[in-house]
Amino acid sequence: MKIAPSLLSCDFSKMGDEIIRMDKSGADWMHLDVMDGHFVPNITFGAPVIKAVRKYTKKPFDVHLMISDPLKYIDNFADAGADIITFHVECSSDIGKTIEKIKSRGVKPGLVIKPGTPASAVVPFLNKINLAVVMTVEPGFGGQSFMPDMLLKVKEIKNECVRLGIDVPVEIDGGVCEKTIALAGRAGVDVCVAGTAVFKADDTALAINRLKSLA
Ligand code: DX5
Ligand code: ZN
User: Fold this and answer.
1) Which ligand 1 atom is the nearest neighbour of the CA of 35?
2) Among the four 13, 37, 98, 159, which has the fewest Cβ within 10 Å?
3) 174 lines ligand 1 (CB under 6 A)
4) Which of 54, 25, 30, 44 lies closest to 193 in space, CA to CA?
5) pTM
6) Mind telling me the catalytic residues?
7) Does ligand 1 have an atom closer than 6 angstroms to the CB of 54?
8) Phi and psi of 104, rounded to 5°?
């Protein structure tokens, strides 16, 4: 199981140091939550901030776009140094065009579904993406409770991949902690985003290690 700490829960006044701390603590990917105050009721940071902190690690930047019109900003996030760009199937951009745009920039595309969206919404795109993301909380804020029913969608996506003869890693995002990660492991999740569970721990290396061993 890969762990991608969500920088949403870091100390924004020293984001570079926080990335170094996560790198040293054994994080596999850095998860960067971009919110526009329109697609979700919260605003975080954009491409200039991601570009500024890119130099603090060589680990992959997993950029989660919770924005209404991602297609318009793909160049900005690619220029900022994103390795993976995920965006929501519920957004207003053309999904196919956005996937192609991300690929054209040499970045890996991923599609995210909100809790109210069925797994079937990502199925038509499975052969075109490098990551499927199932939200296990409503997007917008860190520190919410894990929604275990969402793991049924992980299983549906995994089954569909087997049927299609492809292997698309599945990430879950939201509410992952020591109490919930075993369920994710059993459902076949490949990557877990964890904000609160990692950043609020006294020892982040121990927290990441424990999450991995419990999965
Ligand atoms: C929610 C974000 C998540 C989330 C993770 O909109 O996409 O990345 O904040 O934080 P925790 O682990 O605290 O739920
Ligand atoms: Zn996220």
Assistant:
1) 6
2) 13
3) yes
4) 30
5) 0.98
6) 33, 173
7) no
8) -65, -20
Q: Which of 72, 180, 151, 201 is nearest to 34 (CA)?
A: 72
Ligand 1 atom nearest residue 6's Cα: 8
The CATH number given to 2-214 is 3.20.20.70
Instruction: Quote the pLDDT of residue 143.
Output: 97
Cα angle 102, 68, 6 (rounded to 5 degrees) comes to 70
Residues 42-70, mean pLDDT to the nearest whole number? 98
Q: How many CA atoms lie within 13 A of 59 on its CB side?
A: 23
Whole-angstrom distance, CA of residue 191 vs CA of residue 148: 16
Check if 5 has its Cβ closer than 6 Å to any atom of ligand 1. no
44 lines ligand 1 (CB under 6 A): no
Residue with CA closest to ligand 1 atom 6: 139
Domain map (residue ranges) of the chain:
2-214
Per-residue pLDDT tens over the stretch 150-172: 999 999 999 999 999 999 999 99
Ligand 1 centre distance from Cα of residue 176 (Å) = 9
Report the percentage of the chain scoring pLDDT > 90: 100
Cβ–Cβ < 8 Å for 9, 196: yes
Which of 22, 40, 145, 173 most suits a substitution to test ligand 1, by most atoms within 8 Å of the C-beta? 173
Q: Residues 6 or more apart from 172 whose CB is under 8 A from it? A: 133, 134, 135, 136, 150, 151, 154, 184, 189, 191, 192, 193
- When pLDDT is cut at 50, 70 and 90, the band that residue 124 belongs to is very high
